Amino acid sequence: MTFLLDALGTLVTFDPPAPRLRALLAERHGIEVAEEEAAAAMRAEIALYRREHDRASDRAGLAELRRDCAAALRGALPERAHDIDVDELVPTLLDAIRFFAYPEAADVLDALRARGHRLAVVSNWDVSLRDVLDATGLAERVDAVVISAELGFAKPSVEPFAAALEALGAEPSGAWHAGDTVEHDVAGALAAGVRPVLVRREILSPAPPMPPGVPTIPDLRGLLALAV
Question: Quick check: 58 and 127 in contact, CB under 8 A?
């Protein structure tokens, strides 16, 4: 059996970046902002990143995207921060976002591989996802990584799923895809002929509309029951 896994919200996440951004702005740039101002600026940066991340298909594109994200961040900060040099703001932005693996992620991946299952990450991300997987200790635990920016197609298109299955030498009928969104993960997997499972870690709102028969799990440990 083959398991495809989304990255953000499924394998990895990050701490709320606003408190750290606020501290770094004061420490590095001498600019004091309120936490809500830092949070608003991060929302503006994240919105731009989500629209544009597939531009970063190589390191040059990544550097350009990060500079644009830093400019969006600066533009959303109070006016007293607008004189910060964008190139100096890039490392501040990057250091404000700390990715980490969910507590059960490594153990579940190891258990799945120990049972003989092949694993691939399939994510809408820029080329830096490989760095994140390395830093969180997950890269060595999967057999393939498919990144939308490198491939030129993003979920819910079928191409990322097809690319992962090809890399693993697997067929759709013998594969599961675990992800945290109905729009990208569940819909994309179904279109590709892969069985989806929704990872719903925080039950803070009503369940999203979803095709019948799609299992929901609270964390990745739920995959172990599917790995038969």
Answer: yes
Q: Give the H/E segment covering residue 196.
A: strand 195-199
Do 123 and 75 belong to one domain?
A: no
Residue for token pair 């992962």: 164
Task: Calculate the alpha carbon distances from 221 to 151, 179, 214, 217 in Å.
Answer: 29, 13, 16, 8
Q: What is the pLDDT of residues 152-171, one digit of tens each?
A: 999 999 999 999 999 999 99
Q: Provide the residue range defining the domain that includes 150.
A: 2-13+100-226
Say if residue 8 is in the same domain as residue 34.
Answer: no
pLDDT for 228 beyond 80: no
Q: What single letter denotes the amino acid at residue 66? A: R
CA distance 115 to 80: 56
Give the angle subtended at the CA of 32 by the CAs of 63 and 43, to the nearest 5°.
Answer: 50
Distance, CA of 178 to CA of 123 (rounded, Å): 11
